[in-house]
Specification:
The structure is a single chain. A hairpin with a 2-residue loop joins strand 11 (426-435) and strand 12 (438-448). The radius of gyration is 27 Å and the shape is globular. It starts with 5 loop residues before the first helix and ends with a helix. It has helices at residues 6-17, 27-30, 39-55, 61-73, 84-95, 109-123, 139-156, 158-171, 199-208, 219-236, 255-269, 276-289, 292-297, 302-314, 326-332, 334-339, 380-398, 401-421, 464-467, 471-490, and strands spanning 32-33, 77-78, 129-131, 134-136, 175-176, 179-180, 322-325, 341-342, 367-369, 374-377, 426-435, 438-448, 451-455. Strands 7-10-9-8 form a four-stranded mixed beta sheet. Strands 11-12-13 form a three-stranded antiparallel beta sheet. The chain has a two-stranded antiparallel sheet with strand order 1-2. The relative contact order is 0.08. Helix 9 (199-208) crosses helix 11 and helix 12 crosses helix 18. With 491 residues, it is of the alpha+beta class.
């Protein structure tokens, strides 16, 4: 197993081997073992050595040497780096006159971007350490950067930050068919990409302070500082891909790291959205399946809410927030205002550090306090998502558990079936069948010519705590909820 201080050990082995005091031996002969470091772990160490070299902590030669060893090992496991003589003999083989590592070897694009981000953060006075697993993201580092970001955003004003994020997304042409295309995108097969701006993180912080008026004398300077700090912090978290060839063959030893990167990527770059066609279909399902008996248990009229959200979306944009006079909004959208007002201090109250466990609750609101006379609404993709969440939450909280579970499942199955029927072909929904003594149900099945597709709807998802950035909660939730569902579906 790789250890955080293995990068220091490897450097020490390299420096000692450079003194010509060790006999050169083929790495495969002296390092091979049946239980040791996997090739993927050594590759992780090599990337960390590259990051350290770019950041100015070391030369690139040790990283190039380790890559030679990995190649020569041919996929075999290696001895722990505590085995001093064996490792130094293998490194001595790399340093022999006929095998000297190429000093011009470049680091990968990912290592270059992470290393450069480390340098820029250090230039700002932020302490950054690098170990065998990459950049060491300590609690102190997270707190330092989160505190700086919060101060910048309050200085600029939360609503202005939200507007600037929307302008950035629009200017970068990241809106397509009413949906935001978030994250870092590689332009084409052979092109690389730069570190992406963490839209999800900065946008959510802006909503937290939407009711805070900015006091910056030079807003443009503050916004530049927000962008630079956010991009560099996202880069050092090392969860972005810079080419279309990364992570195509993930080793089991890297499963934890890849899940971690997925969680970090989601928290930094993603915002939950719902496309217009999906909301129309869901609203039809709400109207068709929510009975009078169900409605009597709810504190507000679903039909009124559907009419009002249609009206609100009609005056909303896909790529920018909207300001509304408070009195007019209260009069025109009374139901939505009642169920979806996010008062200042109630929106994302604990959110700041995207990987520190603070939960984002912005999807629980449709309106956000701005000042005494105006309120703010999100762009249309996020309004639609928030409305769906509010309706489903109301059903789960106000109906008994058995009825709410059936109703939510029926709504999704109805929506899927109607979507399939709109495409033509043969569609069946809610059909049961038996395999021996076991009874099964097909939620939705569709046939078009000789193609048959089965759709299984599941209302369960990763919980809010697991999505908040708490890595251990994410793993626990993933095991108990998602993997459990996969097992049932496989059966």
């Amino acid at each position: 197993m790789l250890h955080p201080d293995d990068m220091i050990r490897f450097r020490e082995h390299y420096e000692a081997a450079c003194q010509n005091g060790y006999e050169a031996s083929l790495p495969a002969e002296v390092l091979s073992t049946e239980e040791g470091l996997f090739p993927a772990e050594l590759f992780r160490l090599a990337l960390s050595l590259q990051i350290a070299a770019v950041a100015g902590d070391a030369e690139i030669a040790p990283a190039a040497c380790l890559r030679m060893i990995i190649d020569q090992m041919g996929g075999k496991q290696s001895l722990d780096l505590k085995c001093t003589s064996e490792w130094r003999s293998a490194i001595a083989w790399c340093l022999s006159p006929s095998m000297v590592p190429d000093q011009t070897v470049r680091a990968t694009m990912r290592s270059i971007e992470v290393g450069n981000a480390c340098k820029r953060l250090r230039d700002r006075g932020i302490k950054i350490e690098i170990n065998a697993f990459g950049v060491e993201v300590t609690d102190r580092l997270q707190t330092d950067i989160a505190t700086r970001m919060e101060s910048y955003i309050q200085l600029m004003g939360g609503a202005e930050v939200v507007k600037q994020v929307c302008s950035f997304v629009s200017a970068c042409q990241m809106v397509h068919d009413g949906m935001w295309l978030l994250g870092n995108r590689v332009p084409h097969l052979y092109a690389g990409s730069m570190p992406a701006f963490p839209v999800g993180w900065v946008y959510s912080l802006g909503l937290r302070f939407a009711g805070k008026r900015g006091t910056a004398r030079k807003p443009a300077v503050v916004w530049k500082s927000i962008i630079e700090l956010a991009v560099d912090f996202a880069a050092v978290l090392d969860c972005q891909r810079y080419s279309q060839f990364e992570e195509m063959d993930v080793h089991a030893s890297q499963a934890e790291r890849n899940l971690r990167e997925s969680l970090l990527w989601r928290e930094l770059f993603v915002l939950p959205q719902v496309p217009a066609v999906a909301l129309r279909a869901l609203n039809n399902a709400f109207s068709a399946l929510i009975t009078d008996s169900d409605q009597s248990c709810l504190p507000w009229s679903v039909k009124s809410a559907i009419r009002e959200i249609d009206g609100l979306l009609a005056i909303s944009s896909d790529d920018r927030p909207s300001l509304h006079p408070r009195r007019k909004a209260t009069s025109r959208f009374p139901t939505l205002f009642k169920i979806g007002l996010g008062a200042y201090g109630k929106v994302n109250p604990t959110y700041g550090n995207p990987i520190g466990g603070g939960n984002r609750n912005q999807s629980e609101f449709l309106f956000f306090d701005h000042d005494d006379v105006t309120i703010l609404t999100m762009p249309a993709p996020f309004l639609r998502e928030a409305f769906c969440l509010i309706v489903f939450t109301a059903l789960v909280k106000n109906l008994d558990s058995k009825r709410s579970a059936k109703l939510v499942g029926d709504i999704f199955e109805y929506t899927l079936a109607m979507a399939c029927r709109s495409k033509g072909g043969v569609v069946v929904a809610g059909t049961t069948y038996r395999d021996g003594k076991q009874k099964f149900e097909i939620d939705v099945g569709a046939r078009d010519g000789d193609q048959v597709v089965f759709l299984e709807s599941k209302a369960k998802s990763i919980t809010a705590v697991a999505r908040s950035g708490d890595l251990m909660a994410f793993f626990s939730d993933y095991r108990s909820r998602i993997i459990a569902i996969d097992r049932r579906q496989a059966k």
